[in-house]
Amino acid sequence: LILGDGDNDVLAELGPWVSLSGEFVDRWRVPGEQRSRVWEERFGEMRYGELGAEALARLWKAAGIGPGDVDHLIVTGTHGRACRAVAQRSKVPADRVVDDLASVVGNTGAAHPFLVLTNLLERAEPGRTIVLLVLADGAEALILRTTEALTSAGPTGATVEAQVAGGGPVSYGRYLSWRGILPVEPPRRPEPARTSSSAAGRSVAWKFGFEGSRSSDGSLHLPPLPDEGELEPMAESRGTVTTFTIDKLSYTPSPPMVFAVVDFDGGGRLPVELTDVDAADVKVGDRVEMTFRRLSSADGIHNYFWKARPCRGGDD
């Protein structure tokens, strides 16, 4: 997790860090199974409550502060009930406990503490004391102090709040099929071809970076032409749907396939699959942005590439 570039641009300085381990069964998953299992909730709440309280007590002592000196408290983990209980017993005022976003994005696993922290830093003021407590196989507690760099720094991409607002609805049946919990009949057509590692290796900049090439006359080419020199990253560019088709025969993890021709701001045109859309709602003139998604899977190899999704964050 990068909090700055150089001593003068650090958004938050790292203070004391306390780490505790706890050997007990709480949440586990049998190899090969789609779903995890959880031990009795009260037991997990008791054990995590003890570890969380001990971690915070050591953190207060190491930093020379108390619960009243904390401006923002983040508590995350895979045991929601334990997280809420530890936050309530921490003696940090309730209005300083940060929403863990579980009600809107669920739990994103190992990334979740940093997702919540990023969301807070995008709104926090300089000179604030942040405590991050993670309850998972023990307890990790650390202190961050925001700096004046927050006043001049801005998000380099869409904020967490904008990304949450830009989400699209997914039906429960489709969610279950994507997770492999509800088997569905596959399309009655040939399986997707296995991804070619050699072909992907020859076009790394295009496949993973979505980089185009610009010619001497200023026109942008997607994919890049081999005889043009400097590449131009396009992953954060937005574009406009100029035409589209709905294909009910081609394979896609999210049928039917909506395929569109997109004109990008600043130049470049590309036929690309749309995702996170309802086929009935797509229209010419829609504003889209790029996202790295799975195209298909074959022989246990997942093939990822870029798709376009609607701009729902309000910027367009």
Rg? 24 Å
Low-confidence spans? none
Largest sheet: 5 strands, antiparallel
Mean model confidence by pLDDT: 89
Helical proportion, percent range = 10-25%
**What is the helix/strand order?**
EEEHEHHHEEHHHHHEEEEEEEE
Major sheet strand order: 12-11-10-13-14
What is the distance, rounded to the nearest whole angstrom, between the alpha carbons of the first and last residues? 29 Å
Short description:
The protein has 316 residues and is α+β, with helices and mostly antiparallel strands.
Give an account of the 3D structure:
This protein is an alpha+beta fold. Helix content is 24%, strand content 29%. It has nine helices and 14 strands. A five-stranded antiparallel beta sheet has the order 12-11-10-13-14, with no helix packed on it. β7 and β8 form a beta hairpin. α1 packs across α2. The model has no long low-confidence stretch (mean pLDDT 89).
Task: Chart the SSEs and their pairings.
Blueprint: E1 12-21, E2 27-28, E3 37-38, H1 41-63, E4 72-77, H2 80-89, H3 102-105, H4 112-121, E5 129-135, E6 138-146, H5 149-152, H6 160-165, H7 172-178, H8 197-202, H9 204-209, E7 211-214, E8 220-221, E9 231-233, E10 238-247, E11 257-264, E12 269-274, E13 287-298, E14 301-310
Helix pairs in contact: 1-2
Keyphrases for this structure?
316 residues, alpha+beta, five-stranded antiparallel β-sheet, four-stranded mixed β-sheet, 9 helices, 14 strands
